[in-house]
Specification:
CATH topology of the largest domain: Methylamine Dehydrogenase, Chain H
CATH architecture of the largest domain: 7 Propeller
Radius of gyration: 28 Å
Distance between the termini: 60 Å
Number of strands: 50
Number of domains: 2
Largest sheet: 5 strands, mixed
Helix content: under 10%
Strand order of the largest sheet: 31-35-34-33-32
Length: 781
């Protein structure tokens, strides 16, 4: 894992099982799940998001709201009502009241400067009774690692005890009987250092890591707690035979990463860079077993960062390099195979602790979950892909669940692990960026997900999200709203960055959407709205006039009743904006540029949406919206363009935007469609999350003739529907780019958000059925 991510680890561990199929080395194949087979209605119930709390709102008085602050690893009080999380960026602990899971409330923070030094970094946390145990990295350098464990009163946040850990801590785990806490002392490598005779970043790098056990006793106070050290090397630095014989990559520098304790007080410790697992008996501190995590061959994945979701790549005999580990029961444990040094297999594995052999491997299925749900981060394809990192396992209503978090694709996958060697995928939960901490709270039927990425400039902030388990008869969760079916080769259709919608002529339950410049090649996608979630069933590659695949920044699509499509293509400059007519095979047949004077007045934002109708003469009239003002036009007035295809002429009407008083914000249009005798547009701000204010559908009367030349005539607008409450109702991070709108052949109004291909965005796509056109737009004029 990356140095940034390695700062922290969770106290509770999590496991993930992905649905999909793939040949893997030495492992049972994963089961396959298709969009219509996700067991959305079988008992037990499914998790639904109840709230997303941005942790910057819990900052100390006087702190800049834009200052970095994150939520990484979390724990909870024994009554399940007070959540505590680490914040390694701001060097503090955060406290939240989650008594009402729909309305979490900040309870303030505890700066580590109060406990030690302003540079002290919390790496993990757990709660035992009335106490918070926080492990703190105090290292001066990689070569001089140090750390401590502070015991803080949950009631008054005063430190009551502190223990020197002897090195740089990473993760902490608590035994089920609360007699032991175990800390992985990683003493992590310096990726910029070059060991003698090795390459930069290689192992070994002294000093070696180890495990610290904290004996809590039965009801003893912190003053009576004691630490014990479990060395993972010999006293002279040589390898322990048990590690060397297990095939650990560099046993003189074990680098323990993550810890988990089963019901028999057996500790599992991952050695990520060393591709191994060590088992320790906590009562005696004796190493009982060590084994290599082995290698896996993963096929049918995207391995090249080229702007294309190409699932034909493969990884051959790659070390798993497990990060998180968790016990499914007292025999089987599972690892999240994120990778760090030389490996990472983009999935996770179940191991039989008796033999050390893999009993199940996810293969390509975890990464394909991301693709199917529009969450695949193509920019990470050439690195470690989805990067499964966090893991947690817990039993709810008698059913054992496993959770796995994707660090790069921003989701948590949920599985039924009633049969540890045959996990069953249940559902996928959206998260904000970098879901690091996964905290089951089964006593309250809750799951908390904390995220480690915070970007105030992009408006995507670190948060704690809460999910509640519903009963089997509860409604289908709001996410996902749209997924993809398999393509002709059996892989899920890759998708994302959906910036437009159009009805399919003659198909009442089908829509078209189109991908934008997030991908190298533009594709028109067919969406089946008769299913829930809606399903992308087909893809059509857009081609230039010579029949070669082409990449347009398509921000609008209109399906022509006579066949083919109009695309509204936005350019990086005004002159690059154009209308493009495609035939039914996706081949470019006509390109209509903007008039030179209009193009010259545009900046980066141009065409956003296209629709068409016919006039009284039967001429095809194309309407397109310009997102921002043209230079020289009245402030706050954007243009609606009317293009007469037969005459080849443009004329322009004006549309007045709402005002904004938020610094850095602007208003603009992002879609246009014909509704009865009106034009409906999406008007939105550039804000997301709790700052978002304007996500609205307005209408103007459809002009029946070309606009008069000269003064830009502004069309009066009427509010049809405020979409912000619909977006807020998902209880997630409110998405910025509400960009697709159409009325389907079934008479329903559909809208979709553009997830920007996960670039400066959470990646969540919100697909909305807003109800009938009469409900949204009223009666026909």
């Amino acid at each position: 894992m990356s140095p940034k991510s390695k700062r922290t680890r969770a106290a509770l561990t999590a496991l993930a099982v992905a649905a999909g199929t793939l040949a893997t080395t030495g492992a049972v194949q994963a089961e396959r799940t298709h969009p219509g087979q996700q067991q959305q209605h079988r008992r037990p119930g499914l998790f639904e998001r109840t709230a997303t709390y941005p942790v910057f709102r819990n900052r100390p008085a006087g702190d800049d709201a834009a200052a970095g602050t994150v939520a990484e690893i979390s724990s909870v009080s024994e009554d399940g009502r007070t959540l505590v999380h680490t914040d390694a960026v701001a060097r503090r602990l955060g406290f939240l009241d989650i008594t009402d899971p729909g309305r979490p409330r900040g309870l303030g923070t505890l700066s580590l400067a109060r406990l030690g030094d302003a540079e002290d970094e919390p790496t993990s946390v757990t709660v035992v009774g009335a106490y918070v145990l926080v492990v703190v990295n105090t290292s001066a350098s990689h070569a001089r690692p140090s750390g401590r464990l502070d015991v803080v009163s949950l009631r008054d946040r005063e430190r009551v005890a502190s223990f020197d850990l002897g090195g740089q801590p990473d993760s902490i785990a608590l035994s089920k009987d609360k007699r032991y806490a175990a800390v992985a002392i990683e003493n992590e490598r310096d990726e910029d250092a070059t060991p003698p005779g090795r390459d930069k970043g290689d192992l070994p790098q002294a000093p070696a890591g180890f495990v610290q056990i904290l004996d809590l006793g039965r009801g003893a106070t912190p003053a009576h707690w004691r630490t014990r050290t479990v060395p993972l090397t010999r006293a002279d630095g040589r390898a322990l035979p048990v590690l060397a014989e297990a095939g650990i990559t560099e046993p003189t520098d074990p680098e323990p990463e993550y810890v988990s304790v089963n019901g028999r007080n057996q500790l599992a410790v991952t050695l990520q860079e060393n591709n191994g697992v060590v088992l320790v008996d906590l009562p005696t501190g004796r190493i009982t077993k060590a084994f290599s995590a082995g290698t896996a061959s993963v096929r049918g994945i995207d391995t090249v960062d080229d702007g294309t979701i190409d699932q034909t790549g493969s990884l051959e005999d790659v070390p798993r390099e497990p990060d998180a580990v968790g016990w499914i029961d007292d025999r089987y444990l599972a690892t999240a195979n994120e990778g760090d040094w030389r490996g990472g297999t983009r999935g996770w594995s179940v191991f039989d602790s008796r033999t050390g052999r893999p009993a199940w491997d996810a293969g390509n299925s975890f990464e394909r979950l991301a693709v199917r749900h529009g969450l695949h981060n193509e920019d990470r394809a050439g690195k470690k892909g989805a990067e499964p990192e966090g893991i947690a396992i817990a039993e709810y209503d008698g059913v054992p669940y496993a959770f796995v978090g994707s660090e790069r694709d921003n989701f948590v996958a949920v599985y039924d692990v009633s049969r540890p060697t045959r996990p069953v995928f249940r559902q996928i939960l959206p998260a904000t960026n970098g879901p690091e901490g996964l905290l089951p709270i089964p006593s309250r039927g809750l799951l908390a997900v904390s995220s480690e990425e915070d970007d105030a400039e992009a408006g995507v902030r670190a948060s704690v999200s809460l999910f509640r388990l519903g009963r089997g008869s509860d409604r289908t969760p709001s996410f996902p709203g749209i997924v993809s079916a398999d393509d002709a080769h059996g892989a899920p259709i890759g998708w994302g960055a959906l910036g437009a919608l159009s009805a399919v002529p003659g198909k009442p339950h089908q829509l078209y959407t189109v991908t934008d410049a997030a991908y190298a090649t533009t594709r028109v996608l067919t969406v089946d709205t008769a299913r829930r979630p809606a399903v992308i069933t087909r893809e059509l590659t857009v081609k230039d006039a010579a029949g070669r695949p082409v990449g347009y920044d398509a921000e609008g699509i209109h399906a022509r009743p006579q066949g083919g499509f109009w695309l509204a293509v936005e350019g990086g400059t005004g002159a690059e904006n154009k209308l493009v007519r495609l035939d039914a095979r996706g081949v470019t047949r006509q390109v209509v540029p903007l008039p030179a004077d209009v193009a010259a007045g545009l900046g980066k934002q141009g065409f956003e949406g296209v629709t068409a109708t016919t006039d009284r003469r039967g001429h095809e009239i194309v309407w397109a919206a310009l997102q921002r003002e043209v230079a020289g036009d009245p402030a706050g007035v954007v243009r609606l363009g009317r293009y007469d295809v037969t005459a080849g002429t443009w004329s322009w009407y004006g549309y007045r935007l709402e005002a904004t008083g938020t610094p850095g914000d602007w208003m603009g249009l992002s879609e246009i469609t014909v509704v009865q005798d009106r034009l409906a547009v999406i008007e939105r701000d550039k804000l997301n999350g709790p700052a978002a204010e304007v996500k609205r559908i307005y209408t103007v009367d459809l002009p029946t003739s070309a606009a008069p030349t000269g003064t830009l005539r502004v069309l009066p607008k009427r509010l049809a529907h405020d979409v912000l409450p619909d977006l807020r109702a998902t209880n997630g991070w409110t998405q910025e780019k509400l960009e697709g709108l159409t009325v389907g052949g079934d008479g329903h109004v559909y809208a979709v958000t553009d997830n920007d291909g996960l670039d400066d965005a959470t990646g969540e796509t919100v697909f909305l059925d807003l109800g009938t056109d009469r409900r949204v737009f009223g009666r026909r004029h």
